[in-house]
Amino acid sequence: MGLTISITSISEEDMAMSNTNHPFWVIVNKEIADYVRSWRFIILIVIIALTCMGSLYTALTNIREAIKPNDPDGAFLFLKLFTVSDGTLPSFVVFISFLGPLLGISLGFDAINSEQNKGTLSRILSQPIHRDYLINAKFVAALIVIGIMLFVLGFLVMGFGLIAIGIPPTAEEFMRVVFFLIVSLFYVAFWLNLSIFFSIRFKQAATSALACVAIWLFFSVFYNMIVNLVGKALSPSAWASDYQVIAYQRFMLNLLRFAPSELFNEATMTLLMPSVRSLGPLTMEQVHGAIPSPLPLGQSLLVVWPQLTGLIAATVVCFGLSYVSFMRKEVRSR
Amino acid sequence: MRTNHLNLLLVLVLVLFVMSTRANGAEKNVMLYTPYTQIAVPPGESINYSVDVINNSDEVKNASILVEGMPRGWKYEMKAGGWTVSQISVLPGEKKNFSLKVDVPFKVNKGTYHFTVTAPGVVELPLTVTVSEQGTYQTDFTTKQPNMQGNSKSTFNFSATLKNQTADQQLYALMAEAPRGWNVTFRVGGKQATSAQVEANATENISIDITPSATVQAGSYKIPIHATTSSTSADIELEVVITGSYDIELTTPRGLLSTDITAGDTKRIDLVVRNNGSAELKDVQLSASKPVDWEVTFEPSKIEKMTAGSTTNVTATIKASKKALPGDYVTKMTAKTPEVNTTAEFRISVRTPMIYGWLGVLIIVIVLGGVYYLFRKYGRR
């Protein structure tokens, strides 16, 4: 790890191969190379690839049972590859929502502090480059690695699924999968930015890793418990009016939506199940006269647009935080 | 000359005397007797006379029996002891009975007819038959109810009686002269048939089902029905009065029954109300069964009068609820008169208003702008 070789020492062959020799992209290329060769990335990608193939296998063995008559999602058989499970192994979506944060954290938790500890940070910054190139390049490189990995996995699932079930996806199904992968990318990017932020704040890599994992555990395990506790305390009485009950349900759902995983789950569920027309409690007035039918992709996107906005905004805010704290950071040579 | 006349008269008187004494003597010996000597019957009837031959002499009399003066076309038959007889022998002081069956034909004029049963030279029995009405030799095809009324979708069920008044069994071909597109079926004994076999002097009930064509106009239609054989035929004329049919259609000019709408927005749909029936429609009311909080108004909401085959354009304005979910809703629109109604189901795809989408975009742009500000502030030190 670390940019121990100076930028000028990059061979002319590399320069000719990369279509740009801008210093920023040089750092990005180097970072990507570092990531791909690092053992933790290889271990993680093997774990994720294996679990995803396992979930694909369960989906393929259960896809026959997943087809039900009068199912408005029946026309979207291909999307079921990503969502169907028989309970023994979680589906692809669940694996991504569970392992995605871990991937982001593992790529970012020591981005800055390990370089600082090794003393390479001051060396790089002594090069004639802008200071923010480093933090930007770290982020972009990790994002490219994650993006390639997610798209490869998603397209692998599609490819194997195509071989196994023999039904090609429609253009809309394909676009839905692509949007699902983009949403997953943002979700992982959020955790990546959070861990980069911690890697700037904390001097020890272990501390930042633990802090990240703690937040991840908090949101994926404890947050639900806390919300349930709050919910019990606030729950309306048995004689409450319908509007009170609905208002309570909405409030609880909005509390849950502070967790990025909840936003991600709602977004992916709506994207991969076109029949989902609304998230949250519905009144009878809204349901009356409605007929179960899949939504077009644009409408599905609009349904989850608040979730996507929240996810993207949280990601960008985390990046902004890490950017500011890195720029204000005092970097000394050891 | 005078004596000649006198002689002739004398001979005549003598002859007459001899003849009368002979007749008187025979009458004493053999008599023919039947109780009903004058009978009134309708045409086509058979009369059975029971005639007794009485022998009052003291010797066996052998009398040949003849029927004389039988009107033309009448048939008769004499039977005794199971045989056809023409001569009967009677023991002294006894009587013998034979039956005389006379068939009165159908084709006979009203009036009184005479004929005589005789044992030639011995005795005569004059008989009289009064035919009570004018007889025919033809088929009688009647119906009690030759006129029916109904709308264009009803089936008219006539029942007719076919009476064969000829002397022979007849196989009648049944035919109807219905307008094109109409359907006429005959039922004989409950089964569909195109012909009916009727025994001589028997009747058969024939039911006639008439279905008008689907596009029939209101009015009265005469349908002649023929029952014909090679020798005889009969006709009746049925009349079917079609009252106007009521049929209404509600659709759009292009037949497209789906549209899309943004939640909270209004949308105008052009509708076409079409009177497909043959009668005029009055007071066509337009209404809609819609999801809660939706509004559907029609312009006009009521059509005063629609002549047969005419169309009227109506504009429906749909206002979707602000809380409508994205996806498909069903709205039923109904055009209704007391006579008939029709419903068109509209599938309305609701879209989410883009405003929230732009709001999300705005939030993201603000955040990105914040990052850009950070870039500007810290980036190029």
UniProtKB/TrEMBL annotation, chain B:
Residues 1-25 form the signal peptide. Keywords: Membrane, Signal, Transmembrane, Transmembrane helix. It holds the Pfam family NPCBM_assoc. Residues 261-336 form the Alpha-galactosidase NEW3 domain. The chain crosses the membrane at residues 355-375. InterPro entries: A-galactase_NEW3, Ig-like_fold. It comes from the Bacteria. PANTHER family: ALPHA-GALACTOSIDASE NEW3 DOMAIN-CONTAINING PROTEIN, HYPOTHETICAL MEMBRANE PROTEIN, CONSERVED. This is Alpha-galactosidase NEW3 domain-containing protein. The lineage of its organism: Bacteria, Pseudomonadati, Bacteroidota, Bacteroidia, Bacteroidales.
